[in-house]
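User: Hi! I'm a student and our assignment asks us to look at how structure tokens line up with a sequence. Could you show me two examples?

Assistant: Happy to help. In each example below, the sequence comes first and the structure tokens follow. Example one:
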Amino acid sequence: MALFFKTFEKDGIQTYLFYPGDKNRTPFKRRSLTILMDACSEANVLALMEAWDLETLAMEKQMILCFPVPPKDGWTGADYARCKQVFDTCQMGMGKPDDLPLPRNAFGIPTTEAMLATWHPMNDTKYVVGIGNGATFALTMAIRNPANIAGVLAEGGHPSLENTSESPVPVCLLHASPEAEAYFRRVNGEDITEKIAGFQVYAGARNPLTRTLIPLHKNRVDAGLLRSVCENLFLPVRRPNTSPYGDVEPSMDLNTAGFEYFIHDFRLGDGKKHTWFTHVPVHAHRPDAGWPLVMFYHGGSDNPAEAAEMSKLHELGEREGFITVYPWGTDCCGWNSAMDPTQADDADFCNRLIDYMLQHYPVDPERVYLSGFSNGAAMAQTVALLHPEKIAGLFHIDSNWPGKYGGYQAVTEKDILPFRLGFERKQETDYLMPVWYTYGSREISFPIYRDSTQQNQYDLWKRYNHIPVKPTPAVGEPNPTGCGAEGDTVEILRPTGRHPDHWYQVNRFYTDDAARQNLYNLVIMHDKGHDIAQMDAELGWQYVRSYRRKADGSLEKVPE
């Protein structure tokens, strides 16, 4: 058993870490389990790991284990801010066992080599177990600051109910205070009351994943109870950064997702190994022309399983009837969307993969669509610009490109290689590209000002699609909408019953020809951070699905 002891030199914070195996990068998802103990020493951690069979659980569920050493005065003796600092530091630092700084590029982002050397626990699947005073602190966090806490198991716990977030958090409470139980039952909902797997369960009708579990026959946490909580409370949920406190969302079960896995595969013919997941609908009707195809590119440092869980496009494809593909960047980390000649040729990989799908699956060649998140959203744009004759629509999410990340830099298509090549192709054939682009209002470049990555991106695509370019306010100028240049028409959408507080501002822009086609849409998802909300991908699909790319390169819109 490899147990690592890590000290954060800056703050003197310490933690014990256990990693599930010796391979830190795979195409599958890693979660994390943080255990708050009152006395955290190597001997205590090893004893608890043996008593709860934690090594087996961690390996089976692919969870990184984190055991923070409590502050000097303990989890309740120290002030809340200090305890939260210890917890947050350990969460941010669990990706590697040492405290050496990560080398970064000119944009302040860790280099590919640095990211490949780390583990990658996703922020949306971080679970917490608290014992004694650790339980009090865990429940206090769940009450005050539940962002990035997907679920809590507490043995004991007498948290204060001051400064409550009123945000649901899945919890299992064993001897918690009556006030804590009443709080979570109220906030999580108790429309549904039932007994499941040895628990009294209370849940909300609007979102049954917001559960409160009370063990019926257990007095203490043991290996059996922890495994049952993992399977019935933790693993079914995730907490993406799609509202200020995060939202309780369903996790994906890979065992039932129905993917074909192509892992380090050489079949694309470029002499390099590539990885991708493919999902073909089982129950949806296949049209005579074949299935539409959606390619979704993951974010930087992410992987295909994480992209699938974030976007859930394969689940939408099962309902709507399209094939979904989740590729992994050639370097198993990010995408070379800028076409840097010193890095892997991901543009060629993506093009080859589209051709492979057209040749080996019943795909309608007129209905190939691209999407992606963050770095993957940049890659989706690059592929669409290089191969517009193959792509019928683009619906990407949260792309902080092109330009200066988090800053301001004016660029033209001549400065950005993929856009330069895309505009050069338009001189031969005047391609048009339907675009639905979603961005969060808690993102780094919102509000949108002149020369930000967002203004650079939307004005380049407007010019590409013959849409008049309106001026975007500069920093310091009035920007009443936050979105920079407001759409020719503006809609407000509230498309989800599970999260009625989610809303979208859709800015629609139209071409300057007689047909006035709506070919660019800037969609602001309010209160969303750098993540994918429940309806982000689905709204994009609803827009692009009516477009077809004809064999002569022209674009056709088919009435629904």
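Example two works the same way, sequence first and then tokens:
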Amino acid sequence: MSKTATNAENGRRSVKPLSGLLPYLKRYKRIVGAALFFLALAATATLALPLAVRRMVDHGFNGADAGLINNYFIMLMVIAAVLALSSAMRYYFVMLLGERVVTDLRNDVFAHVMTLSPQFYDKSQSGEIVSRLTNDAAQIRSAAGATASMALRNIILCIGAIVMMVYTSPGLSGMVLAAIPVIVFSLVAFGRSVRRRSRAAQDTLADAAAFASETIASIRTVQAFNGEPQANRRYSGAVEGAYQAARSAVGARAVLTGVAISLVFGSVVAILWFGARNVLEGTMSAGTLGQFVLYSVIAASGLGQLSEVWGELAQAGGAAERLNELLHEKSPVSDPLEPKLLPSPASGALAFDTISFAYPAYPDRQVLSGLSFSARPGETVAIVGPSGAGKSTLFSLILRYYDPTSGAIRIDGEDIRETSLADLRARVAIVPQDVTIFATTIHDNIAFGRPDATPDMIRAAAKAAQADEFIQKLANGYDTLAGERGVTLSGGQRQRIAIARAILRDAPLLLLDEATSALDAESETLVQQALEELMKNRTTLVIAHRLATVLKADRILVMENGRVVEEGTHESLVQVGGLYARLARLQFEAANE
């Protein structure tokens, strides 16, 4: 469904998505109870004020007992004190509840997003997801806190004031009650328009945030190509679109507020005119009219503020729906209902059985077709071939980022789709070509796959990866911050930290994707020695573009168009004179020139 169609559908639902917050509210029944108690107490104190005013007007100024006026003013002061205290406590508990709910919601959404397979991220922008976790969650925090509290307060005051108006003067109340359906209809009708336009504004702002996140993360590339003006124009266009969408939403809310207030206070003026005539005719006391007018003002103010609050709730409804979409996103790759345990102890045997695969975004483009091969425990298998042959896809399938369209992948004889993702990935360590370094310490980066590792274990892994020497020279050693994406480190340093991370994981199946590609000649020699030691007694798959790095592999698989077209050792494949021999001749001749 397109975004436009989705927005049109969303516009017909009002604030229903906010009902998804109920499970979070149920977790904190005491806070909800305290908030409702002080909310009711504040409303009761507000509704008691007109009663005290009526008695003061009718009895405090008649001269019969002038001393009563002191008692009435004392009563008003007590009511005001109760109102102030209850309002303060209501604000505290309501805002506390909003902060608690949005914190839990953010945690749940983030935890769920972490479980989604790369298929989801293939079609989603990370900046938009972050926008939902920040901007949309902030709107929900307001809705779950102050906005919802104001809505309940105004509803209670409006209903209570209407009841007291009927009790005070049934005749005048009929005029007010006749205007209420018109006001409510306006709230509902305009509220839908507000929510639809607010959702459009949030979507547009998320697009702008996604572009900003992507551009800032790639700032070096942007500046290297003098791309600042182009980036500025694109971002300016995105935020201008967000402004126009927000302007439309604000305009709808302004119309909603104006219509509601004009209807409400227009009816109050009419009531005051009729009431004044009754006082002049002697059919109603001045205190009674004052009481009725105060209740009508309370009811009118409640409805008027409710129109504004309703617009905010409608806007929060759009934010809630965007977060609900993330929470209800289903990952096509998930644990089976009854996962099997992989054999223990692990041997590291790996088998691809007639695997075919096409990426979900391009279902008609076969990446792998009937691929079969196996790797014995402790064997080193190199995978080579031209770009686009499907080499890196093998690693994505082993880690179950995706599931094959047909065939089965087995580790230690078990189909990996029948085991849990955590159990599967605990058996695998990977050193990718595009190394991920987090904006935390070197220590935490190495220990990322094994957070319980001791400092001695981490340093031992770094030494094995030839990383300890340069780490010790950093300002704070292992406690040095790596910077966002490891920006403070060289490419070779990042690669060695990734190798140390894999060494520390100590998994039976090792995946190396050009693990030495970013190293200089001296570092490559040292790291290659460390990798050779690491490979012992482990099943290792090595993806290599530089054939010099796989000469010592037990076997070499040559891939082309998603199939294994040649298999053997370096010497045997050179003698065959096929694709591998051609690739080797091109690389080694170029190296000798």
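Here is something you could point out in your write-up. The domain at 18-327 is CATH 1.20.1560.10 (ABC transporter transmembrane region fold).
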